[in-house]
Design a protein that fits this description.
heterodimer, A: alpha/beta, Rossmann fold, Fumarate Reductase Iron-sulfur Protein, Chain B, domain 2, four-stranded antiparallel β-sheet, 15 helices, 17 strands, 29% helix, 19% strand, globular, B: alpha+beta, 3-methyladenine DNA Glycosylase II, Chain A, domain 3, Alpha-Beta Plaits, 3 domains, 34% helix
Amino acid sequence: MSLASQWTGVKTFPRGIHPPEFKEMTEDKPIRRLAFPPELIIPLSQHTGAPAKPIVREGQEVVRGEPIAEPSGFVSVPMHAPATGVIEKIGLARDARGTMSPAIFLKAYPGATQEVLYGKDVNVDALSREELIKAVQSTGVVGLGGAAFPTHVKLAVPEGKSVDTVIANGCECEPYLTTDYRVMLEYPADIIKGLQIIMKAMGVQRGIIGVEDNKLKAVEALTPHLPADGSISVQVCKTKYPQGAEKMLVKALLGREVPSGGLPIDCGAAVFNVATLAQIGELLPRGQGLIERVITITGPGVTRPGNFMTALGTPLRYVLDFCGYKGDDLAEVILGGPMMGVSIGTVDIPITKGITGVLVMTRDALPSALADLATDETRALPCIRCASCVKACPMGLNPSALGALGRKGEYEDMAKHYHLFDCFECGSCSYVCPSSIPLVQYFRIAKAVVRQKQAAAKS
Amino acid sequence: MRFMLCYSLKCAFRLLITIGNLFGQFGILSDMITHLVTAGVMMAGLGVILATLLAIANKKLYVFEDPRIDEVDAMLPHANCGACGMAGCRAFAEAVVSGKILPGQCTVNSPEMIQAIANLLGVSAGSREKRVARLACAGGKHVARVRALYRGLKSCRAASLVAGGGKGCAWGCLGFGDCKDACDFGAITMNEFGLPEVDVEKCTACGACVTACPRGLFSIHPVHHRLWVACKSEAKGEEAEAECEVACTACGRCVMDAPEGLITIKNNLATIDYSKNHLASPAAIQRCPTGAIVWLDDEKGPIKGAAAKRVVRRSPLPVEPSVRI
């Protein structure tokens, strides 16, 4: 913690960047519920870990909230029917990665109700820690901040490790996105409830909600709901990218550094996104499953941006049509924020648990440098050793050296000597690079190649 | 010996002092010369000692290495490609000399050289059928749909990480030529449709392209595997054909026309069981509607069946992207 942050009380981490926020397009738009599309596509693998196993057959009728797939292991979660309807088929559907993967196709009945018709109340206070972890798994909740890692797996603290603080991540440092912000404004009680459940499941006494200082309204909304015993506090962090990365947040709030190659649990902390907590707080006491999530649809490519409570499995095209997606303009569609989000090659993909928002860019809206790049794809200039990337990297890596090695294809060297796998692809280096070197793309290639080699060596 | 050495050093030292005295009248100059000569003699002495040590070490620590390894090594192509299954050419030479492997296992070497090695060692050359890398995709720009424009690093690996590249088919060749760059023998060229073509003569079956392709489209096959499915799409019939005109639609005609068990449909894709390759004949390909299954002929290249729709287009399909990635 720096001296300045001690004086101001606003916490942060070293380095990082300050991209423009662009949140004004949607931050004041309340969460609206979206209508059901005629057909929903529920991929069986929309979380990290083993894909779920379908437990329905073609032609079967399901009600909203009913489980339709069961977990196939500990690192796996069930799926629930997002709408009342009939199972059309179980087949391949395109996903955001561009591959085809198995999915359940559900035909929603016209006029199906948004009311959840499935679930049995659970007495949270009566559950033991193990039972709570099981209960969290049965809700099908995964990390809703984008990683989609099954939440219950994080709750099981491994032998020999201990956690003293649970952190709720309400930073949302990605430009454009306002999902977490709206959730904090509209579901503060659920967030606190969810955080308490998580703290109970992990046996932790202290909870901190970290919010960036551009979202002080969210702090105001959360404060009245804090429990009287003082176990949970709201702390304000500096608005800086990537403040919402869990390692950065742990550093800012607790002053602890997550060891290289480790997780926050290695320094006694566990980090959960506020949207995840809100869902746990809402679903778990009712014994329901995750069937919808809040997404931000924004960007210059849509005429009616906003925050929407969307049924999982809704085709993206349906959502975008609702928001006035022009589509005729040569556009770029990004799942997530502009910094860490992934470009997609088709809008015919379903909304999954890990999608925080959709950013639709038009050609005119792209910065001129990027537009130039678009016409000449190889126009990355040579590195001028300005070290802007070194100053920006929140992990303290040397992106310049990594990039140079990546260009030469020295992937093993990057992993061995330059801590390639400590990079979490926040994109700060690519953002500040005056030579427009696609650094993160090099790192992604390097990681993929090194992983492939490691897998080949194992088998 | 030791006595000799000591004596000579002693003599040399005396000589030095004598020379030094001779120059004594010149003061500083004489001192300097004394020092110079001392240093020279000391260094020479050290040299003699170390040389002796080396000579002893050479005798005591000598490891016998079959001189034929060097000879064989010199006759190898030094591509270090690993196609023989060894770590490199030196390792191959050692294995050949020790009799673990036959010289013919090197796929890169010329037949004359292989024979020369065999003659040198007095072993049989050993024959190995020519193996080549084959691409399980025929979806060039002229037949396969592109759904999004990819901009960024010109590499298949990079494109595949960005929403799987812009290609409509999720299994097909991306066409940026990572395999071409990986090939050390110049055996792969990119044709006018953006598909890699393997030069059978130059290909050594080293497998570099197999690991380079992010879609896993290359595999190594003996040349007598002539029946070939040039498609990897697991999409269902019409869906597959909507993305690519030459996709396997899993219609099953080849399965019916081939001897039983040779071809099966697995995951909406015709799959050939090469353990039954001796049953293969061009009969199986005749009724394929898209020409996804081909008969590879040495001279004519891939031959499509009579019923396959003819692709006359040579220009790329128009790109109508809904999205730019």
